[in-house]
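Subject: design request, 206 residues
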């Protein structure tokens, strides 16, 4: 009964969520789009003509935002282990970027060009056990940071989702070695009870 009750509460919250309603009205695939929009409003990450890699992209809310702002002269490459419906201006690669064939597919798609921005809204499957979920969250961020090092141009940027907790400060120190500026963002579109936060790295040192 407890699990059923939680499920009903989640559904009620979902359908009453102002960002869910707004996403439906404005044609975004998920409420997560507003997280990136708010981060971009503060940090001016996205510009027309830029190239972007979106990790953990499905269902495509962040890719939508990136493609809209990058425009026809820009390029967005989205990756996810889950399928994603086509989006105008977005090249989608399905698979785990830790796997060599998927990584090589990304490199082929980039055609030797470095990107301006890597964004990641990846999160582990939540078990509810902090001692399990937190290391998984940090691990995903480390993977995103590692990939970004191989594909980002000098001076480029990074946005990654992470949960506050063990390993967070060490991750911050690592990013500060790689980027000229690192800031922490908690968008209004993030649910208040969620421990998620976003790290923004500006000025990749190459």
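Subject: RE: design request

Done. Sequence follows.
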């Amino acid at each position: 009964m407890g699990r059923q009750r939680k499920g009903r509460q989640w559904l009620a919250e979902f359908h009453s969520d102002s960002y869910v309603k707004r996403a439906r009205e404005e044609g975004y695939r998920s409420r997560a789009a507003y997280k990136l929009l708010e981060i971009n409003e503060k940090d001016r990450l996205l510009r027309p003509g830029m190239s972007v890699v979106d990790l953990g992209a499905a269902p495509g809310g962040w890719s939508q935002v990136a493609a809209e702002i990058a425009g026809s002269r820009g390029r967005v490459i989205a990756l996810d282990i889950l399928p994603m419906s086509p989006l105008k201006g977005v090249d989608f690669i399905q698979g785990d970027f830790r796997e060599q064939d998927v990584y090589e597919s990304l490199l082929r798609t980039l055609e030797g060009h470095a990107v301006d921005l890597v964004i990641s809204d990846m999160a582990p499957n939540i078990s509810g056990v902090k001692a399990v979920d937190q290391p998984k969250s940090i691990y995903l961020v480390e993977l995103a940071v590692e990939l970004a090092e191989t594909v980002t141009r000098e001076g480029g940027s990074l946005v990654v989702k992470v949960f506050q907790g063990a390993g967070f400060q060490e991750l911050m120190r690592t990013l500060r070695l790689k980027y000229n500026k690192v800031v922490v963002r908690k968008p209004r579109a993030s649910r208040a009870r969620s421990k998620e936060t976003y790290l923004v790295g500006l000025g990749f040192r190459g």
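The longest strand covers residues 152-163.
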